């Protein structure tokens, strides 16, 4: 197999995995209103523990994932991650049968654990399998796989578990007989069992296929002469300031991405829009992200550098956040969905900028960046807290969560990714 054909095969396999990432990750936007109703949660903050449980798995498991990958290699680690995700899907069966919210959260945490392993392996893999200068372009292609699946997943799961949700919610709320209400809630909870059994089977099959695939292994410690030279000069991961600033940047980016994708339905529901309509809102955000990824494929690095793409994305995010604050109703929903366009090129730009020059520290740097995905756990909870506890208006609470994040991302695009360059110890784009 030639290097070109090997890289092409690897991209196809990783593309399939990114499709899986997207499909599973963006189910959360549908699960939030579903579990709020099924488990009779009282506040928005409680409902956002769905994203908290899922994304905090990245925080706790990213570094252990790097250690696992050092022992298993990329291919075996990816297969293991898929099997862990399958196990998390199966936990939804007893959770649905008992309508136990804590058990649902456990299943989400286990799924996040598997995804942490997959993300820790696949993101640096796709970044360094070719020239680092075009890494954002390759990650944009992966993003189309990811967000394409993400656009489909709420439509599919929403149709299966939230059909006639508005009417059903009204009946449940109006029912005074405890037994009758419990029967309706049990029936609603049971809708999730079939889809998650199918998901577990598909994930197990994918694990087997990845394990048997010809996915080439790569040696991150010898990825380039520059990387080796940098690794020799830097004995510790703490000597890469651009990486640590990048971890914070990615933390804030994932936070605003989850706000735009998963919290948009809660925002719409708080604005008086019914569940039958809001279950489609996540798809609107992901369609906007798909448009952004297509733009990235054709413009990076030919017409625009990774850091300039990040700067433009941050500036549009600032503008759309202000638009949310200054508007209401469906106009505000449009601005939230447009944040998907702003967010699309952020991961493709941040990740390669942050891991450039890490050499033998690449796996650990990747793990630290994957830990930053925990931003998706924190920002939605902050939004819910501002609404529920401080009673801050809907649009104001949303903007308070997103605007500071985009301001910092803009800083990283302009200056933060160059940190350490003045010492001559780091070469950046």
Could you provide a short overview of the structure?
This protein has 429 residues and is mainly α. The protein has helices spanning 3-25, 28-38, 44-47, 49-90, 92-98, 101-128, 135-161, 165-174, 178-190, 193-212, 225-233, 241-261, 263-270, 275-278, 281-299, 306-326, 329-343, 346-355, 362-371, 375-388, 394-414. It has one domain: MFS general substrate transporter like domains (Growth Hormone, Chain: A, Up-down Bundle), CATH 1.20.1250.20.
SSE layout:
Blueprint: H1 3-25, H2 28-38, H3 44-47, H4 49-90, H5 92-98, H6 101-128, H7 135-161, H8 165-174, H9 178-190, H10 193-212, H11 225-233, H12 241-261, H13 263-270, H14 275-278, H15 281-299, H16 306-326, H17 329-343, H18 346-355, H19 362-371, H20 375-388, H21 394-414
Please name the CATH topology.
Growth Hormone, Chain: A
The rounded Rg comes to 21 Å
Beta strands, count: 0
Strand content: under 5%
Q: Would you identify the CATH architecture?
A: Up-down Bundle
CATH class term: Mainly Alpha
In the predicted model, the low-confidence regions spanning at least 5 consecutive residues are 422-429
Give the integer mean of the pLDDT values.
85
N-end to C-end Cα span: 31 Å
- Coarse structural class: mainly alpha
From the spread of the alpha carbons, the general shape counts as: globular
The largest β sheet comes out as:
none
What is the count of distinct domains?
1
């Amino acid at each position: 197999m030639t290097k070109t054909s090997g890289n092409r095969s690897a991209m196809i396999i990783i593309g399939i995995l990114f499709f899986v990432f997207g499909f599973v990750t963006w189910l959360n936007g549908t699960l939030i209103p579903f579990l709020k109703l099924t488990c009779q949660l009282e506040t928005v903050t409680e409902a956002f523990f769905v994203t908290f449980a899922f994304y905090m798995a990245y925080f706790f498991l990213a570094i252990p994932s790097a250690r696992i990958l050092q022992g298993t290699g990329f291919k075996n680690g990816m297969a293991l991650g898929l099997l862990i995700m399958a196990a998390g899907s199966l936990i939804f069966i007893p959770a649905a049968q008992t309508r136990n919210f804590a058990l649902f959260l456990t299943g989400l945490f286990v799924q996040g654990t598997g995804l942490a392993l997959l993300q820790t392996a696949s993101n640096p893999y796709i970044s360094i399998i070719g020239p680092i200068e075009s890494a954002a372009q390759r990650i944009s292609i992966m993003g189309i796989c990811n967000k394409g699946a993400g656009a489909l997943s709420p439509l599919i799961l929403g149709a299966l578990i939230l059909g006639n949700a508005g009417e059903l919610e009204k009946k449940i709320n109006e029912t005074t007989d405890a037994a009758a209400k419990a029967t309706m809630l049990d029936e609603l909870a049971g809708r999730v069992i079939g889809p998650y059994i199918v998901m577990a089977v598909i994930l197990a099959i994918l694990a087997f296929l990845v394990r048997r695939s010809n996915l080439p292994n790569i040696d991150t410690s010898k990825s380039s002469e520059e990387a080796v030279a940098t690794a020799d000069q830097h004995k510790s991961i703490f000597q890469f300031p651009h990486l640590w600033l990048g971890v914070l940047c990615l933390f804030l980016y994932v936070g605003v991405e989850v706000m735009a994708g998963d919290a948009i339905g809660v925002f719409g529901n708080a604005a008086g829009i019914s569940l039958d309509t809001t279950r489609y809102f996540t798809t609107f955000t992901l369609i906007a992200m798909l448009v952004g990824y297509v733009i990235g494929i054709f413009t990076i690095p030919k017409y625009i550098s990774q850091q300039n793409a990040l700067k433009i994305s941050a500036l549009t995010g600032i503008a759309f956040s202000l638009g949310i604050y200054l508007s209401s109703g469906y106009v505000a929903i449009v601005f939230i969905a447009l944040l998907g366009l702003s967010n699309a090129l952020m991961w493709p730009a941040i990740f390669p900028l942050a891991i450039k020059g890490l050499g033998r520290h690449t796996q650990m740097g990747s793990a630290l960046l994957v830990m930053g995905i925990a931003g998706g756990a924190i920002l939605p909870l902050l939004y819910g807290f501002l609404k529920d506890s401080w009673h801050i208006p809907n649009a104001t609470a949303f903007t308070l969560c997103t605007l500071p994040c985009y301001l910092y991302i803009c800083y990283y695009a302009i200056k933060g990714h160059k940190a350490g360059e003045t010492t001559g110890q780091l070469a950046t784009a």
